[in-house]
Specification:
Strand content: 15-25%
Helix content: 25-40%
Oligomer: single chain
Radius of gyration: 24 Å
Largest sheet: 6 strands, mixed
Number of helices: 14
CATH architecture of the largest domain: 3-Layer(aba) Sandwich
Strand order of the largest sheet: 2-1-3-5-6-4
């Protein structure tokens, strides 16, 4: 059986990998640029073409509805379709996102009963989320959009919300950003640097959790803000897994009930799949001793190696000491941030960051959005300093002072800290690092 995903800008999608993990059918990506191409595709399905089962993603979840012969009650209540099958010359539409979203909330232990919930965005996913929240007993559901009574310019009306859910594509790959801002015309935007007002998450004093339907990157600007405030932050990956399982059952004619709740065993299955995929998709970042430990880790973990310093030299056509000499430290740091922004969007890599990378807040956020960051700590006298513009000429006492100033930023960014002394060989310490839980499914 052939299955496909239709939508626009699908280079980031991992749906084929995910569907292959849960069933053996063929699953392809079909990027369609406009409604005309969508209609043509649906007509081929109806005529009995080679693809009779599809998932639908943005921006076509509402577009497809007029061209279907019937839709499920769940899809009708959500005003959106994400699953279509062709049977006997008729196109049947379903919505498995609703069951997937409810499963994600339950697995994440987020109780919305009696709670005030803000939904960011008013598209097809927003309507699905609103329908689910109504079913789960939310006391007040407020949809925030660019225009209308409730918008991004009057959020102060809703600072008493208990939960915020982002259904917009803001912050999604490849437009990953370091901060969440509100533009002058009232739109939400993820930007690396801006003088615009930031989304005022810290003013929501009752907030218990933030949910983002985006799953790539794993930690969006919205969720980074939540984590920094100590608020529970959940991405959309478990929802993606759950809706895929329900779509699979529809494709295979196991069920036509797209709103059927998942049972306890299915919850466990969804969580285990999500955990396995998150491990496989994550970057593996390591700092310090780049030419010895990090390259070896990349090779043994069968991951591509990216060196930020190499990217900087390639981008500028100059060696790093020359950049410092000709343009100064700030210019170097600006170029470094550009390279970090590019590299941090990649997946399945080991990325070598320079010692000054975590000093900028925007860099720390970019590094953390899709990664496990490992800090390799060595005794200061053992650190390599040759050809390092900032440390090559420092005395040992000055090195200690520099380390003391930088260390809080390193620790703030790191997920795991590994201590390496001078008695271990590179192979011994690398083998020890590769036994960390974050590598257990990679080796």
């Amino acid at each position: 059986m052939n299955v496909a995903l239709i939508g626009r800008n699908l280079s980031h999608s991992i749906s084929p990998e995910m569907h292959h993990a849960i069933t053996p059918y063929t699953y392809d990506i079909k990027e369609l640029e406009n409604e005309s191409e969508v209609i043509t595709f649906l007509e081929r399905m109806k005529a009995g073409g080679d693809i009779l089962n599809i998932n639908v993603t943005v921006p076509y979840k509402k577009t497809v509805i007029p061209y279907l012969d019937n839709i499920s009650e769940t899809a009708r209540s959500c005003g959106a379709v994400n699953t279509i099958i062709s049977r006997g010359g008729n196109l049947h539409g379903f919505n498995t996102d609703l069951a997937g979203f409810i499963a994600m909330l339950k697995i994440s232990e987020i109780d919305v009963s009696g709670k005030k919930v803000l939904i960011l965005g008013s598209g097809g996913s927003s309507k699905t989320v609103a329908a689910a929240l109504g079913m789960l007993g939310a006391s007040e559901i407020i949809v925030i959009s660019r225009t209308g009574e409730n918008n991004y310019l009057n959020l102060d009306k809703h600072f008493n919300a208990d939960l915020i859910i982002n259904t917009t594509p803001v912050g999604m790959y490849p437009n990953n950003g370091a901060g969440l801002y509100i533009t002058e015309d009232g739109q939400l935007a993820a930007l690396n640097k801006s003088s615009l007002p930031e989304f005022p998450l810290e003013r929501f004093r009752k907030l218990k959790a933030c949910v983002d339907l985006i799953y790539n990157p794993s930690i969006t600007p919205f969720l980074l803000d939540a984590e920094e405030l100590g608020i529970k932050a959940i991405n959309g990956f478990q929802m993606l897994i759950a809706q895929a399982i329900r779509s699979r059952d529809i494709f295979l004619d196991i069920t036509e009930d797209d709103g059927e709740p998942f049972d306890a065993d299915e919850f466990t299955y969804i969580k285990e799949l999500a955990d396995a995929f998150e491990i496989d998709r994550a970057h593996r970042h390591a700092r310090l001793r780049k030419n010895e430990h990090r390259k070896k880790i990349a090779k043994l973990a069968k991951r591509r190696f990216i060196d930020i310093d190499d990217m900087i030299e390639s981008k500028t056509g100059m060696k790093i000491p020359e950049i410092f000499s000709k343009h100064g430290k700030k210019a170097f740091r600006d170029i470094e941030s550009e390279c970090i922004s590019e590299a941090s969007k990649e997946s399945k890599c080991v990325i070598a960051y320079g010692g000054g990378s975590p000093l900028r807040k925007e860099n720390r956020r970019l590094i953390r959005q899709n990664s496990t960051l490992i800090l390799l700590e060595r005794p200061i006298p053992l650190l390599a300093r040759k050809k390092r513009p900032l440390t090559e000429k420092l005395t040992e006492a000055e090195m200690f002072r520099l380390n003391r100033a930088r260390h809080p930023y390193f620790r703030a960014a790191a997920d795991i800290t590994v201590f390496i002394d001078g008695d271990e060989t590179v192979k011994e310490s690398t083998d020890r690092i590769l036994k960390l839980p974050c590598f257990e499914d990679l080796i």
